[in-house]
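Posting this for the archive.
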Amino acid sequence: MKLLVTGGAGYVGSVCAARLVEAGHEVTVVDDLTTGHADAVPPGATFVEGDLAEVAPTLLADGFDGVLHFAAKSLVGESMQDPAKYWNGNVLTSLQLLDAMREHGTPRLVFSSTAATYGEPDQVPILETAPTRPTNTYGATKLAIDHAITSYAKAHGLAAVSLRYFNVAGAYGPYGERHTTETHLIPIVLQVAMGTREALSIYGDDYPTPDGTCVRDYIHVLDLAEAHLLALSHTVEGEHQIYNLGTGTGFSNREVVETCRAVTGHPIPATYAPRRAGDPATLVASADAAAEKLGWKPERTDLHTIVSDAWEFTRSRA
């Protein structure tokens, strides 16, 4: 298929673009490089640098079989401090993309959504039927885009799949996580091991979990990419399908740090700090629907493997 990958120079987008190229698809990546990296665009893909809203109509006029939409502002804290940046950068840009797809007859969309659309869950593992009550602007914008996609599917016959996931980690060869502003636990811990960050703070050690620290569902970025490839082949005209992606189990913050210590051989000093407001004790996704409907099953669920791949990438970039 001829595919447009938005945000394909970013972390998840670059891994998915690489797998699409390897699978024999014709891939065009569009990214403004605000947070992405030009050298993360895989060989074999065409790269267009520019603002998505400006270049998408021209690109899609050439005829594409589908779009994989990763481009987004994604810092939770920033989204609360500067909501306009997120409503404009995420929602307005996505609406413009949807209009360009409708105008040029692009038939299918796979959207990178997030479990932040659920907010604090009533029960775990979280099902797709769980109430959507985002607690931050980032999650609210992603939920708004999901609603828009549903409308476009019903009104214009768009075939769409949204994939909601929690904590993506790991790396795929030369493609990995390197955010200017890092907020994710595993790369932060590895920065301490590399000596680029002095110490680590773990927020809360008195949660109702086995070791008192928060538990999160970690999914390997390559497993995530495989889900996007499967979603492409399971879109249905006029339908918007939504699937959670996760392992169905979780690892605590303390387990993550201990695994990073084992993988890196570094003591990784850590201190405990008070809980952060709004941090649920446990966030684990049910991926039963993705397994049943897409035939997707994560293969790299071992935390040691996830951390080892991330560590190898981190050292390669040193």
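The first strand starts at residue 2 and ends at 6. The mean pLDDT is 95.
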